[in-house]
Structures are given as structure tokens and as C-alpha cells.
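re: that complex we talked abt at group meeting.

here r the seqs, copy pasted straight from the sheet so there may be weird spacing, ignore it
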Amino acid sequence: MAVEAQIPYQEAMELHHPHSWLTKYWFSQDHKVIAIQYGITAIGVGLVALVLSGMMRLQLGYPDQFDFIDPEAYYQFITMHGMIMVIYLLTALLLGGFGNLLVPLMCGARDMVFPFVNMISYHVYLGSVIILLASYFVPGGPTGAGWTLYPPQAILTGTPGVDWGILLMLGSLAVFIVAFTMGGLNYVTTILQARTRGMTLMRMPLSVWGIFMATVLGLLAFPALFVSAIMMILDKVIGTSFFMPAIVSIGDSLDYAGGSPLLFQHLFWFFGHPEVYIVALPAFGIVSDLISTHARKNIFGYRMMVWAIVAIGVLSFIVWAHHMYVSGMHPWFGFFFATTTLIIAVPTAIKVYNWTLTLWRANIHLTVPMLFAIAFVITFVMGGITGLFLGNVIVDVPLSDTYFVVAHFHMVMGVSPILVIFGAIYHWYPKMTGKMLNDTLGHIHFWVTFLGTYIIYYPMHYLGFVGVPRRYFANGDMAIIDESVIMLNQTITIAALIVGVFQIVFIWNLVYSYFRGKDSGHNPWKATSLEWQTPETPPRHGNWEDKLPTVYRWAYDYSVPGAKDDFIPQTEPRSPEEAAAGRTE
Amino acid sequence: MAEATGLRNLQIVNDWADDVAVFRGVPWGKAMMWIFLLSDTFIFTCFLTSYMTVRMTTAEPWPNPSEVFALEAFGVPVPLLLIAIMTFILITSSGTMAMAVNMGYRRKRGPAALLMVVTAVLGASFVGMQAFEWTKLIVDEGVRPWGNPMGAAQFGSCFFMITGFHGLHVSAGVVYLAIVAYRVWRGRYEKKGYDIIEITGLYWHFVDLVWVFIFAFFYLW
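got the structure back, here u go
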């Protein structure tokens, strides 16, 4: 099939148009509705995780003041908070939410290539969330094994939720992976095979590149988690010994023998490290587009940005054991994994430089999405630099399991992607609803969140250097727990509660603006990429008119000298002057 | 960027970076199946790697597969007899599958459907023999997922987990083949074309290929 044979195929794509309320809003096969379903579910479960973190902070700031927080509950808070935030919020929202929303719109497709599979994907995801939350309603409650679920302890007596919680957690993860695979196959195939005329790979907005690479990582990394979940379920339920060595527990020698706990760690981190980039790469891509649009300037070094995304994705598969320096490994392996880890800093630094150079002498509009984007760059540099510390074996070993690690990963993969998600929601909400989000509320939300997270996480670096261990229910009377530590812990708790409560402003803004926001028009940010050129806002099912749009240029023609506006949409044919000037991209 | 200028002149780079589709003429379903199989490869790789790891960590001796999987024939124990037959059947089914794909593209839907049914029957007989093998191990030789009389408990654990997971793949493939064969026979793809048979075939060949690795790493080693 040549291009012209393939295009009518896309244009004539059979869409399953809804016939009832149920098929329009619940079992919808429209990628935009599915994106919103993913978004609402992810944010909902994310709020649960936010409340859990507040409970942890209560205990850490004011130990033993609250009767409802005992050590068991505390460990359950940690575990559920971590797992929900990483998998059920960030992964689901960035790929299921923004992936679904942006990929067909930005590529100029009518929908995902297999809308039915896409619809099933969401409902399976919803199932995994329900299974996970069900663990609060079973005897023993959810598991308290820590979000890494390390065996042998995860399935042994003494860990909270050892009867049911751990099984529901593992089962929920397996179901989530099935959901992700169905969605992910759709995103990758759509990007590879269903772009519109003129949309070459090197004209795709960076958001699409980020989502693409992250989805590929997901498809190759989640299998390791899937396999380890199956094996741990077997260890727990029918008594195999994949991960279980010979163990004496509370005086009894158990029936397990010969398994390898380290195997689980390898499998888990073979998934776990790419997972960091599954979350980070879409954020990288989206933030590039936000910065370029709101700075009215083309992204600096587009090709380098693309190759950096690809390089980071590839490298992320050979760094996993840097999470395991203290598990015991041959020094040569430590050397290898430290080296690959530090090499990742090169493409990552390229991206940071390019964001900064895009801002350099640009016509910066400090809109709410732009504020979040700039906040992301700053926060990401902070988190990235501490990553260089922890990537080195000799620095990592003393800092392992201290609050320094907590500060590092919350900065780099907690706060950073969340800032991008907020920015992206403020940016694309007009396209989804036809209404602008309220600006004042947006500014309040931004400043409280941005400054608040620094008050929360900045001091944790210090706590880590002092030696305060992470995952401890209470620090007791250790010599290192002096006045400064106690004072800081209280400060952090107060800041965390304030930031947590202020997210209500954001939720309220989403609801309020939907009904009372001012109309946005088709292209409020004067952006170039395809999703802003749809004939209707919000785009209808099928996105485009009878004919798919044709793309003539890349997505970053902002402030082009001689052009009549400061942006040229991708659908704008090349002018004779441009052709004469020999501009090819 | 000097390298990029050089890269741009490569035809393969141009093809890949062109608009609409990276893989020209490849239907969506086929591209999607390839990507899915890549992902599934990682699942089986993780299973096999885990098996090799626990085979090394366990302190008990590993049972000898040649003895465990021997079958009595004419009064003599023949090592791996059943497995050899199963492997032969599965590889034969790949052959009939390939013929079905060929028939599909020649738009002979009757023979195509028939060959797919033959493939499915061969697959079902593979699963049947696997059920026989499991029964023999469990009932006669006392192998359990959590332990066995011959040595390391992980032998049984890995065996049941890996062959079970593969058996599920084969069973799913049999159902998939049956459904597609029925639709082919009914003429459902006359207008759309018969890429679907090749897509089904991709899955089937993959399941077959995975078996070769399981055979090599579990039974022969």
C-alpha cells in the first residue's frame, strides 16, 4: 500500500458512534472521553494517596499524638501512597490520560487505531484500582511491605496485610499491566502507522515523542513486574520458593528453601527504573511544548531533544541495579551500573539546556501553564543533581535509606511530573471543554504548590545528611534526632498539610470553570500544533472534517521573521517566500 | 548537525521518518501484533531468566530432566519421548499455519479455513499431551509446585509455572484460530482482505518459537 492508498483508509476509519448515554459517557470508544475517564480516575485515586501522605506527615511531625496511627497503619500508608502515586496516578494519568488525549489529536488521526481495545483498557484499569482499594476492606487491611514489596518480608508474618493485602496488591498490579498493554499497543501503533499526510516523525510535537518512548518502555518493562507478581503470588498461595530462601521466622523454620530474594529485586528494578522514565519522558515532551508555546519561540535543538528522549529510553534499561547498591553486589557491577547511570545525565542535561535556551531571550508569557513549566525545569534540576550523588556507589551507600533518597525521588519523579501535569491541564483544559480555567485560582494554586513543595522537600536533604532513616515509624531517642530535626519535621508536616488542602482550589477550579469559565475559542494560546486546529472545540468524535488535515511544517513555527502572526499552524502551506528562502523545516 | 545531515541521506532513515506510516503497507493489526509479541517476549524472557536464577540459588540437586521426562516405550524408558512428539506436533502446526496464510492471500478461503482448523487441532492435541504429561508427573511421580521426591523444589515450581503459562498461550491461540477460521469460512474478510490470517499466524509462530526455547532451556539442559 502506498501512502495514498493508506490515507483514505484512515479517513474512512469506522467509528463506533454512541447510541445511548451509556455508550457515550461510560463505554465510549472516543479517545477523548477515554482520556477524561483515565484522568478522573487517576486524580481520584491520587487524592487518596495524598491523604495517606498527610497521615504519614502527622505521625512524623507529631509522633504519638494521634491514636489512629499505629506502626502497622503507618506502613500501610507508606506502601499504598507510593504504589498509587507511581503506578495508578502518574503512569495512568500521563499515558492513559494525556497519551489518549494527545496522540490522535497531535498526529492528525481520527482516533486510536483500535478504539474498542482502548475502551476495554480503561475499564480494566478501573478494575485494577478497585482491586487495590478493596484491600482496605479485607481482614488485615492493605499490605505494609513498602512500595517495593521486597520479599521475603512482604509475604511473612509480621508485615501488615500479609493475609489478603499483599495478594490484592499483586493481583491489582497484574491487572493494571494488562490494561496498560492494551492501551500502550494502541498508542504505539497509532503513532507509527496512523499519522496524517505530511506528519513525519521529525515533525511530531515532542509531547508525542515523549509519550511514544515512554509507552515503548512500559511495554518492555512491565513484563518484569508482571512475572514477579505472578511468582510472588505463587510463593504466597501455594508455597513455591522462587523468592524465598530457607527462613526461621519467630522460632519456626518455614517450608521455604532455595529461592532468591535478590531475583525479585532485579526483576522489580528492571521494571522500576524504566518506570521512572515512563513517568518522566511524557513530562519532558509535554513541558517542551508548553515552554515553546508560551515563550513564543521554537524549541531549541528539536532533533537533539528527540534523540535525547530515545537515548534516555534505551539507557534506562541498563541502570536498574543502582537501586540495589546496598543489596550486595560485585564491585565491578557497581562500577558498571554507576557508569551507565551517570551517562544518562548527558542526554538529560541536553534537554535541560535546550529548555533553558528556548527561554533565552524569548517572548515569555507568564501564563499559569508557563509558570508550572518553569517550575518543572527548576525542580527537575534540583532532583537531577541529587541523582548524581546517589548514582555513585560510595556516596549512595551512606545515604541509602535516609531522607536524602526520599527528597531526591520526590523532587525528580514526584513533584516534577506533577507540576507538568498541572501545567498540561491548565494548557489543554480549554481544548477539552471550550472554557478557560480561572486565572486567579490558577495563580494561587501554583504559588502554594510550588513554594510549598520546596518547604516540604528541601529540608529533607538536610535530614538525610544528618542520617535520619526513612520508612521509620518513630525515630525515638537516637542521638541524631536533635532539635533541628524535630523542628524541621514539624515544619514539613505543616507545609505538607497546607499544600494538600490547597489542591481543593485546583479541583474547584476544574469544576467551576466547566460551568462558569469564560469561553476559550479554538486556539486560546495561539499554538501551532494540530490539536488546536480542529474545526470544533471540544473536538467531536472523529476529530476532523471529512478530510484529515495536511501538515506542512513542524510544530514550532513561533515568531517566524516576516510571518504575519507570531505563530504558523502546522496546517499552513509553505509560502512562496519561505520556499524561496529555502527553509525546509 | 553533521551526523544528521549524513543520516538524512540514508534511504532507510527517510523511509522510517516519512509521513503517515513507518511501516508502509503494514495493516494496523499486524503492526500491533508485532509490538505485542515483543512485549510478550519480555515476559517469557523474565520467566526463563528467573528459572535459571533459582536453579543456581537452590541448594538441592536439580533433577535430571532426561529421567523425569522419560516415557516407557516397548519396555524401555525413552528420554524425552513425549516432549519430542509434542515439539514435532507444534512445529508441524506452524507449517500448516504458513500454508493457511498462503491460501488466504490467494483468496481461497475454504482451504485457508481448513488449514487453520488443522492448525488448531494440532495445537489442541499439544495441550492435551501437556495435560497427560502434567498428570503423569503429579500422580505417578509426585511432583508438586512446592516440592518433589527427586530434588530441588524449584524444579516443579518452574516447570508448572512456565509450561502452564505457555500452555495458556497455546490454548488461547487455539480459540483465536477457531474464531478466525470460522469467520474466514463465512467470508467475512472478502472485502477487507486476508491479513487477519497472517496476524493470527504471527501469534501462532511466536507461541511455537517460545516452545523451542522452553524445550532447549528446560528439557535439554
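couple things i noticed - The two ends of chain A are 27 Å apart (CA to CA). Chain A has 16 helices and two strands.
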